[in-house]
Write the structure tokens for this entry.
Amino acid sequence: MGLAAGFVEPLESTGLHLIQSAIAKLMTLFPYKNINQCDIDLFNQQTEKEYLRIRDFIVLHYKATERDDSDFWRYCQAMPIPSTLQQKIEMYKETGRIFRQDDELFNETSWLAVMQGQGIKANNYHPLVDRLSDVEIQRRLQNIESVIANSANLMPDHHAYIQQMLS
């Protein structure tokens, strides 16, 4: 468990989650002293799936970057990516939807933030929006804007924050 099991990357700091997840799997799959191969295999399969889904999320950060100021970043833009990540990107581009599999660590909001933030745009939108009136859509968007503005107003500006940390 922990770093002995593997290390993905510090970008999203997944280490603690992976330790906690491994403990939960151990408690579920090995509740008694006897250990059998089917439990071991299931533990390993579930752990591998979890690591691969985290890998995809991390790779997205590097693949979708617009940075090209070094060989490293140019390599990241051109590198082949896992088919599971390619499928997730294509689904988002084509439909505006993000599908979360098997309670993977990163939720739809996290995937959306990285895709939109890195310039991956959807060519369509979720069809549930068609069930809402224009007035309701506008109300929801204004609510989101208000929450963001209120949150930003509660935070100190950069200079004030630094001064507070220094004192």
